Amino acid sequence: MSQSQFPQVRKLVTELPGPKSKEFAQRKQEAVSSCVATQNPIYAQYAGGGIIVDLDGNSFIDMGSGIAVTTVGATNERVAAAIKKQADHFTHTCFMTTPYQGYVEVCEFLNQATPGDFSKRSVLLNSGSEAVENAVKVARQYTGKPAVAAFEHAYHGRTNLTMAMTSKVSPYKSGYGPFAPEVYRMPMSNPYRDGLSGDEAAARTINWLEKMIGAKNLACIVIEPLQGEGGFIVPAEGFLQNLAKWASENEVVFVADEVQCGYGRTGKMFDSEWEGITPDVICTAKGIAGGMPLSAVTGREEIMNAGVAGGLGGTYGGNPVSCAAALAVAESIKKDGLLEVAQRFEKIIRERLSALAASDQRIGDVRGRGAMMAIELVDSEGKPDAGLAKEIQNRAYQRGVILLACGTEGNVIRMLPPLSMPDELLDDALGVIEQILKEI
Ligand SMILES: *Cc1c(COP(=O)(O)O)cnc(C)c1O
């Protein structure tokens, strides 16, 4: 189901970057804040299927999906048609002044697609950060309590509150404080590093929650069920279930930040489903609208309705074009069988990388779910090897594969292919990684 009008092959026709991209890299330097970093100096002309074509006609395999956003492809036909149609009707009225159907339909979809068969309500916003901010708002409003528990390696965004909740200081936080108060950092389950079972890791975290915050002060626990920027850390089995149970027994709102791992990425609509948890509140963004800016908070009716009318919202939140795109994304996931594609991609990736890891000590761990897989790179003593990750990333780019790194230590290579990628391209990209590891 590659809806792409250009050939689905990796192909370099100039040196990198080519002359046209080079010109824009120069103009970028003179026009754009240097604090906005670009990983590769190639400028996109087309993208779709599993390919990004740059201004000079080079075709790259896209193993990043614009950071887990274009899950259904960057030129999905259903999405493009829905955007065009809505743009012909109207691009904005502001839902708070003159509402429209798309907003309500997206909320209806989210309320039924998220785990939990209790009554739910949703609010639509623009970015992942804004969704997390609003999840904290509703949790504080509902509980009347101030404190927020976030985790080691967590990433929740770049606004003031979400910077406070994000774990890694550089580049995200350094020099941008002071940060929002009442955010407490809790130990994460990280089985590859801590060797703890889910029960053991949860007991440790719950002890911290009780000793450092206290349930009577705690509004919410905010956690990524499968951590994204922090290194694709999959917690030990049972960790999240224990935390969710403790939260429900202590009148603490359990918030799942599924901005990166949600929306079909891991082979179910929400990663919480794999973990057997039913969050009180779920944040979605990234993959929700095929690249159009949209995010959402969905949760229990009594939590979402706790404040007064007008307490939530925003000028652009739930933009009608974004909503039309989101409805088309939902349709594509269902009708094009994309959850099955994500599960197939996991099999393909896991098989190749596990075989590689068995013969290469530098791959310390292979982990993830669905089309959200990673390798953690280590040196001969098992310590994080960020240099190797960078080297693999650079060489992959030179060969026409866009690869992203992540992890607090920068030593994790993550794979987030769009689900519109033909299997042959995925095989090709994995082959390039194998080849590079052989050479270094
Ligand atoms: C990307 C991300 C965010 C922030 O989303 P933005 O749209 O960049 O504001 C929040 N949480 C998680 C888990 C993310 O991956």
Structure, described:
With about 450 residues, this protein is an alpha/beta fold. Helix content is about 40%, strand content about 15%. It has 2 domains: about 20-60 and about 335-440, Aspartate Aminotransferase, domain 1; about 80-335, Aspartate Aminotransferase, domain 2 (3-Layer(aba) Sandwich), CATH 3.40.640. The protein is built from 15 helices and 15 strands. The strands form 3 sheets. It has a 7-stranded mixed beta sheet, sandwiched between helices. A 4-stranded mixed beta sheet has the order 1-2-3-13. Strands 11-12-15-14 form a 4-stranded antiparallel beta sheet, with helices on one face. Strand 8, helix 10 and strand 9 (about 280-285) form a beta-alpha-beta unit. It is globular. The two termini are about 35 Å apart. The structure holds pyridoxal-5'-phosphate (PLP). One of its GO terms (molecular function) is identical protein binding. Belongs to the class-III pyridoxal-phosphate-dependent aminotransferase family.
Record the SSE blueprint.
Elements lengths: L18 H13 L12 E5 L2 E4 L4 E4 L2 H4 L8 H13 L11 H13 L6 E6 L2 H16 L3 E5 L8 H6 L17 E4 L4 H4 L3 H16 L4 E6 L15 H11 L3 E5 L13 H5 L5 E4 L10 E6 H4 L15 H16 L2 H22 L3 E7 L2 E6 L8 H13 L2 E2 L1 E3 L5 E4 L7 H17 L1
Parallel strand pairs: 3-13, 5-6, 5-7, 7-8, 8-9
Antiparallel strand pairs: 1-2, 2-3, 4-10, 9-10, 11-12, 12-15, 14-15
Helix pairs in contact: 3-12, 4-12, 8-9, 13-15
The structure holds pyridoxal-5'-phosphate.
Catalytic activity: (S)-3-amino-2-methylpropanoate + 2-oxoglutarate = 2-methyl-3-oxopropanoate + L-glutamate; 4-aminobutanoate + 2-oxoglutarate = succinate semialdehyde + L-glutamate
GO biological process, one term: gamma-aminobutyric acid metabolic process
Family: Belongs to the class-III pyridoxal-phosphate-dependent aminotransferase family.
